[in-house]
C-alpha cells in the first residue's frame, strides 16, 4: 500500500497494510522453539497458517493477512531458524519444520488448517500434507520447492544468503530481493530493513549453515518429496505460476500442478518469487475465492 511523499512520489510501506488491521504479534513455544507469530481474525473461523521462504519472516504476508483474516483465523509465523524465532544449534531439515508446524497448530487449537506456503514454506506445507493429511484442508503453493534441485540454484541461494549475512549492508540485502521481487517499487525499504536486522543478529550468523542445509545436494535429496507422494496428496491445491520467477520454480509449479490430483493453476505472469507480496491486488481475491469455495 502506498502514500505520496512531498514531491509526489509514491511511498510504499508494510504498515500501509497493517495500520488498520486488528492483529497481534507475539511469541510462543512450538516443538521447544521460541516462535514468533502474527495472528488476525476470529479464532472461531476456519484456520489458515502462512509459511514464508528461506530466511524469511511473517511480514512477507503483511499484504495478505488483512484480507484473509476477514474470513479466516490467520496465523503467520517465523519458522524455526528464520526471522526472529529461535535458532537452535542443529540443521533445519524438512521434518524439523513439519514438527514445528504441527506444534503451532496444536497451540492455536487448529485440528485442521489451510496452508499458504511460499518456496520453502510451500515445501513444508506439502510435506505436512504428505505426513499428516488429516491436519491439512486446502493448500496454496507459491514458488514451490521440494520436487527437484539443481546445483546452480542451490549454489546461487547459498552464495547470496551467505554474502548477506557476512555483509548485511543495504546493497547486499537489496540484491537478495532482486531475485524475489521483480518490480523495484515493491522492494520496500522497511522490508529490506527487517531482513537486514535479521541478518545482523548474532544467532543468524552462528546458524546460517543450519538454515542453508537444504542447499547441500545430499541433504536436499533426502528431503525432496517423491513424485508418488505429491500424487498422493488429497488436499485441494492452488498453485501460483509466477511468470518471472527462476526457471526451476516455474518448472516445479507446473509439474506439481500436474501431479496433484486436485490442483488448479493461478497465472501471475508479471511477478517473481513473492507473487502475493508483489501483486496482492491479484493474489488476495484469487486466494479468497479458492479457500472459500
How does this structure look, described?
The protein is of the alpha/beta class and 293 residues long. It has one domain (2-149, 224-292): Rossmann fold (3-Layer(aba) Sandwich), CATH 3.40.50. Helix content is 43%, strand content 19%. An eight-stranded mixed beta sheet has the order 3-4-6-5-7-8-9-10, sandwiched between helices. The chain has a two-stranded antiparallel sheet with strand order 1-2. α3 packs across α4, α5 (151-166) runs antiparallel to α6 and α6 packs across α7 (189-199). The longest helix has 16 residues, at 151-166. The mean pLDDT is 94.
Please outline the helices and strands.
Blueprint lengths: L1 E3 L5 E3 L2 H4 L4 E8 L2 E8 L6 E5 L10 H8 L3 E5 L16 H14 L5 E6 L1 H12 L4 E7 L8 H16 L3 H9 L10 H11 L2 H10 L5 H7 L3 H5 L5 E6 L4 H13 L3 E6 L6 H4 L1 H13 L1
Parallel strand pairs: 5-6, 5-7, 7-8, 8-9, 9-10
Antiparallel strand pairs: 1-2, 3-4, 4-6
Helix pairs in contact: 2-13, 3-4, 5-6, 6-7
Q: How many distinct beta strands?
A: 10
**Helix vs. strand class:** alpha/beta
Cα radius of gyration in angstroms: 18 Å
How would you sum up the global shape?
globular
Secondary structure tally, helices = 13
Q: Assembly type of the shown chains?
A: single chain
- Strand order of the main beta sheet, please? 3-4-6-5-7-8-9-10
Main β sheet profile: 8 strands, mixed
> For the residues shown, what is the average pLDDT?
94
Named at the architecture level, the CATH assignment is 3-Layer(aba) Sandwich
Residues in helix, %: 40-55%
- Measured between the Cα atoms of the first and last residue, the distance is 27 Å
